[in-house]
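Ticket #4471: structure output looks truncated?

Reporter: J.K.
Steps to reproduce: submitted the chain below (147 residues) through the standard prediction queue, then opened the result file.
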Amino acid sequence: MFKSIVVGTDGSETASEAVRQAVELARDIGAKIRLVSAYEPVPASRLRVEKQQVPQDVQWMVNPREDVDATLEDAAEMVRTAGVEVETYARQGDPADAILDVAEETEADLIVVGNKGMTGAKRFLLGSVPNKVSHHAPCSVLIIRTT
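Returned output as attached by the reporter:
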């Protein structure tokens, strides 16, 4: 049924619950998890300042997407611990677009996202990640209710 599951994460509690439930499903059915997180690049001037404040041997860690890489690695470790195969995707730009792009590129069977931003009148806002994903997905979508 589902062989490839794309999961959006930003490190929030809502996203972590979506990852947790996607892992349970993937483990039960033998699917692969593809974790996606989006980022806005850090300005070069800020990076220069930050690099000057860390020891030279770890300056390579200061980069435009360091936060998203850490978020993805934390989530990927949880997936690996459960014995599920995982790939990570850090994408620059809009989170919903990042999730949709990876789902399309990898021919995913299912997208899993948390319901953050879908309560009350907010669910009608165009910027809501779960709302946008649910309306434009190239596959089935599972929205995990966390609130």
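Triage note (M.O.): checked the attachment and the full token line is present. Confidence is low (pLDDT under 50) at residues 58-62, 118-127.
Status: closed, working as intended.
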